[in-house]
């Protein structure tokens, strides 16, 4: 989520964010002799500090909000500029002065609001064969209403550029406000497409979307884009959790999410990590599971939210793995669980950041239970973290705005490594 706030917190001393207390470990099932002490569990590895190395330092970027790598090709990093351009950057070319344009849809993207624009890209798992990719962006429809768009596109196998006339709109979601548009699309191991949507905007959830399974706002959706049901341009997976729930949209995988700004799968465990932006007091990291209700707007983090709308679909809420208060940051940016063989010290560490305090944190979790962290791994100071990216080999990248959230703010991309 790109948040229009001051950056005064950026210079604050790095203080680790608060986290929910981990549950007590279950007794070992291994039988022990009477009176014998149970063997000590090995302590989790310490979380290392990280360093950042600028990528393509001479290439001018304007409000970059995501980087995505072409499947099987780590020399082609696709950089999304919020206004509607996608550039192709070679992260190993430090001498490049410019980057070729893959696609420019500025004319159809509505980026008038600070949180509006081109928000996400995902390549089809078989991109090498079908040259298909997907975009999520905000637009103004024919009736002059704000809408969020998920669409399918094709690239030219010969030129490597997108076909500008190939768009097929799969899904639109009316969104009356300029903020809280969510904004990540990605594919799971199951081949399904996952999409995070925001609560629709303004403040306090005026649409009561969080606890309402009848709307696609404030949700995580899961659809099959390799087929189509009658009346749709996609299929509903048969194992989605709310297919048989009266009044529920069948696309929904999880709900009660205020505004997930970046989510990612752990490529080893398959767990889905989501960074959910809070309102007045708490930011949170959730590990999202099938059918989970993450509480908004009955809760913000672990805390009751005044004036929440309970809805009619249940009141059992999944606790966040981590939360932090607004004296440590006010707009969470989700990252990745590091699985890069080149950076073994970071293995299993989920790295995330805050747009305003410019802190990068790390945690380790096992089966959803926190075992290490959160710890501050770095502070970027004048670089505002807007997103993270992950190469095919697991190398992690940070995306930033330089110094401000001005409409023409320049940005940077940084390769993440451990500090020497």
Verbal overview:
The chain is mainly β. Helix content is 1%, strand content 39%. The chain is built from 1 helix and 27 strands. It has one helix spanning 127-130, and strands at 50-55, 61-62, 64-70, 73-81, 85-89, 101-104, 118-123, 132-140, 146-154, 168-174, 184-187, 193-196, 219-223, 252-255, 260-265, 272-276, 282-288, 299-300, 303-304, 322-325, 332-337, 349-354, 359-366, 369-379, 383-390, 396-402, 410-418. Strands 1, 2, 25, 26 and 27 form a 5-stranded antiparallel β-sheet that branches. It has a 4-stranded antiparallel β-sheet with strand order 3-4-5-6, with no helix packed on it. The chain has a 4-stranded antiparallel β-sheet with strand order 7-8-9-10. A hairpin with a 3-residue loop joins strand 4 (73-81) and strand 5 (85-89). The longest helix has 4 residues, at 127-130. The two termini are 31 Å apart. The relative contact order is 0.18. Mean pLDDT is 90; it is low at 3-41.
């Amino acid at each position: 989520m790109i948040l229009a706030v001051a950056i005064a917190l950026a210079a604050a001393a790095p203080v680790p964010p608060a986290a929910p207390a981990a549950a007590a470990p279950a007794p070992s099932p291994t039988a022990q002799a009477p009176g014998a002490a149970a063997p000590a569990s090995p302590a989790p590895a310490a979380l290392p500090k990280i360093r950042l190395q600028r990528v393509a330092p001479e290439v001018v970027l304007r409000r970059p909000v995501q980087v995505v790598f072409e499947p099987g090709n780590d020399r082609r990093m696709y950089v999304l500029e919020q206004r509607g351009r996608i550039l192709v950057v070679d992260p190993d070319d430090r001498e490049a002065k410019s980057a070729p344009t893959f696609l420019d849809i500025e004319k159809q993207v509505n980026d008038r609001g600070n949180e509006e624009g081109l928000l996400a890209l995902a390549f089809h798992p078989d991109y090498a064969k079908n040259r298909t990719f997907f975009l999520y962006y905000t637009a103004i429809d024919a009736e002059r209403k704000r809408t969020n768009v998920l669409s399918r596109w094709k690239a030219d196998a010969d030129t490597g550029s997108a076909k500008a006339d190939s768009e097929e709109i799969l899904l639109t979601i009316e969104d009356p406000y300029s903020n809280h548009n969510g904004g990540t699309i990605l594919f799971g191991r199951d081949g399904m497409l996952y999409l995070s949507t925001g609560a629709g905007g303004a403040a306090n959830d005026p649409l009561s979307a969080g606890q309402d399974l009848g709307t696609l706002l404030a949700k995580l959706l899961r659809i099959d884009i390799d087929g189509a049901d009658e009346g749709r341009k996609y299929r509903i997976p048969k194992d989605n959790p709310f297919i048989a729930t009266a009044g529920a949209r069948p696309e929904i995988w999880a709900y009660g999410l205020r505004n997930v700004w970046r989510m990612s799968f752990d490529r080893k465990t398959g767990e889905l990590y989501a960074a959910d932006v809070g309102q007045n007091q708490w930011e949170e990291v959730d590990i999202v599971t099938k059918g989970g209700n993450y509480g908004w707007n009955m809760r913000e983090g672990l805390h009751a939210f005044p004036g929440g709308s309970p809805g009619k679909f249940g009141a059992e809420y999944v606790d966040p793995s981590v939360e932090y208060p607004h004296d440590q940051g006010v707009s969470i940016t989700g990252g990745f669980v590091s699985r890069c063989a080149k950076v073994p010290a970071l293995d299993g560490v989920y790295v995330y950041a805050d747009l305003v305090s410019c802190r990068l944190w790390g945690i380790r979790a096992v089966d959803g239970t926190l075992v290490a962290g959160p710890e501050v791994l770095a502070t970027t100071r004048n670089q505002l973290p807007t997103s993270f990216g992950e190469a095919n080999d697991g190398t992690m990248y940070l995306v930033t705005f330089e110094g401000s959230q001005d409409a023409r703010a320049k940005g940077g991309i940084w390769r993440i490594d451990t500090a020497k």
